[in-house]
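Q: What would this chain look like folded?
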Amino acid sequence: MEGEPPFGSWEAKRGELRRRLAAKPRRLTHHGPLLLAPGAYVEADRLSARLSARQVFLQIAGDVEPELLISLAGAPLDEYAAAWQENGGPVTADPGSFAEPALVTLCLAFLTTLLDTTGPTGAWARRWGFPVDFAPPAPDRTGERTLLRYTAERSWGLGMAGYTLHRWRAEPLPSPDQLRLADIFASKANLAGEDLGLGGGITLPPAWWDPQREIRAAATARIMGELRRAVRGELRRIEAEARARAMPSPAKRTGTEHLVWLARYQLRGESFAAIARDVGKERQSVTEAVKETAALIGLPLRTPNPPGRTRTAPRRAARIVRVEPRRR
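A: My prediction, written as structure tokens:
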């Protein structure tokens, strides 16, 4: 926590991290709009919107299912700590931030080893259904930007896991409510998105007032009416141009509660029907919201539960009924 003394060793810090995660309560309530962009329009391919939504989902996911974080702090964290030591990482518990070049090299070296997904970190990502398959376009057509985009959109599970482990190893531990998954692709530059050049000047008509022939109240009403009509027309013009080059932000249709439903379905194994009953919504509404939100953040949905069974719910013991023989 803020103001606490630094840990004397990595082992002590790791133990405190696991203790905090074990005490983390489950939270199934998140409400409010999901703001994916400061304005009303985003780029047509929505990369910045995708990353913004995914960052919020990763923050919510550990609240909905704390075991997600607890399991990452087990064998995967030990795997990262071993790689850290093998590559000459500092032995101190809190060596610095991700921005330091030497630590960036350590993190990237570990992420490279994760292309072989048979280790604990790869197994963790597969267990929770995060995308790990890495099959980018043909090398002769793949530039650095294309490869980065492919990884950010379709193979981000390992990068997210590795970056979270790196932050736990390299940086001071945050407060328990701030222990969350972190997306390596959610940088300020990526979240801001490319400048689409949608802005334009607004031209307003000149206004005049002759106090000899018109009282002030009437002039105010007349001028404000003219200006309002002019402003509406100019905004419609700029919006029409923006619509031709970009797309409306999906923030109007997607709320943070939809991300909670997605986490409950994907991570806790709850069915659409069970979630709908719990939140007082129609099953179809929950189903559509979960599918749209999963597509937005680039998360492949798991296979639905067999009818009549919730994956996380324990099986009920068979009920034995003793039948007495009928007396004659």
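Residues 107 and 166 are 6 Å apart (CA to CA).
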